[in-house]
Amino acid sequence: MAKDVVCGMDVDEKDAETKGLVSEYKGEKYYFCAPGCKRHFEKDPEKFLN
After folding, report:
1. Of the chain's two ends, which shows fewer C-beta atoms within 10 Å, N or C?
2. pLDDT tens digits, one per residue of 6-43
3. What is the DSSP string of 2-44?
4. Torsion sign across C-alpha atoms 38, 36, 11, 20
């Protein structure tokens, strides 16, 4: 289980991989519950990592 850094939901990594809801940033993989969360993260990753 991973945590969506945008909304805080728990996310199954395999499910997110299957749905294309994974983003890589600075060598780390981040998993998302929905396309909207992934888009928000990719616009400004540092906002969600600080």
Report:
1. C
2. 999 999 999 999 999 999 999 999 999 999 999 999 99
3. EE-TTT--EE-HHHHHHHT-EEEETTEEEE-SSHHHHHHHHH-
4. negative
